Amino acid sequence: MVVVAREATAQEPQCDRERAAMVETIRTYARSDASVLGRQGPSERVLEAIGRTKRHLFIPERSCSIAYANKPVSIGHGQTISQPFIVALMTELAEVAPDHVVLEVGTGSGYQAAILAHLARKVCTIEIIPSLAETATKTLRGLAYENVSVRLGDGYAGWPECGPFDAIVVTAALGQVPPPLIEQLKVGGRLVMPVGSAYTSQQLTVVEKTAPDKTTSRAVALVRFVPFTRSKE
Ligand code: SAH
After folding, report:
1. Is 170 in the pocket of ligand 1 (CB under 6 A)?
2. Which of 28, 100, 129, 163 could cysteine-pair with 184, CB 3.0–4.6 Å?
3. Structural domains of the chain ordered from first start
4. What are the tens digits of pLDDT across the range 149-202?
């Protein structure tokens, strides 16, 4: 972590500029595709959180030119961080408020969790690949994200001890929303997840829990995510 911090310091002003440019790209992209968010695009609050989150410190190369292009980035083990616009879109759709407790399934690099940490009171995030969980834990700890807890495991079952949740963000694709996640969502809460086959594109879906046993669901955009895998136990 010390070496990373030193490397990062040397390129910091350039990285800051590239990150600010990425935020502008997200803004422009949202305007050109107004159908997706239907409104003015991501809120200033979400854009500010993205502007404060150092994406280059979450990717293996630590390269700003790679980190701040509006593209997905590989994080090893066949996994990727989504394109920044999709990260912004999912964060916006989750409607996270400062007093919220949020669950993320699919920690990956920890980047999305870090953005959520700027917006919520507490973030709990689950990752199924041990080395990704370990690296994300170290990265988040190194950057002093104290309101994020990372757990190794299959996120299908959620994390009841950490909830109930005001918002849930799932960053891997599955044919249906895991029922335990709906159970752990508060009434009035939202779950955002790519629903569909892992090997084609999926519908980015927003599920709202309107009563203890009632949800409404809407498909927002066509997206392409890595598969949601299940542990064998
Ligand atoms: N949100 C991440 C990127 C997610 S890529 C980031 O910001 O970097 C999707 C992640 O979901 C991968 O790391 C993958 O290992 C993880 N994943 C897939 N199935 C899972 C499951 N059942 N439980 C927890 N994590 C899972």
Report:
1. no
2. 163
3. 12-223 (3.40.50.150)
4. 999 999 999 999 999 999 999 999 999 999 999 999 999 999 999 999 988 899
Q: Is the peptide bond before 130 cis (omega within 30 degrees of 0)?
A: no
132 neighbors 77 (Cβ within 8 angstroms): yes
Using CA atoms, how far residue 125 sits from 155, 163, 190, in Å, is: 8, 11, 16
Mutate to test the pocket of ligand 1, among 79, 90, 134, 156 (most ligand atoms within 8 A of CB): 79
Q: Which of 93, 119, 95 is nearest to 36 (CA)?
A: 93
Answer for the pair 173, 198: CB distance below 8 angstroms, yes or no.
Answer: yes
Residues counted in the chain:
233
pLDDT in tens, 47-63: 999 999 999 999 998 89
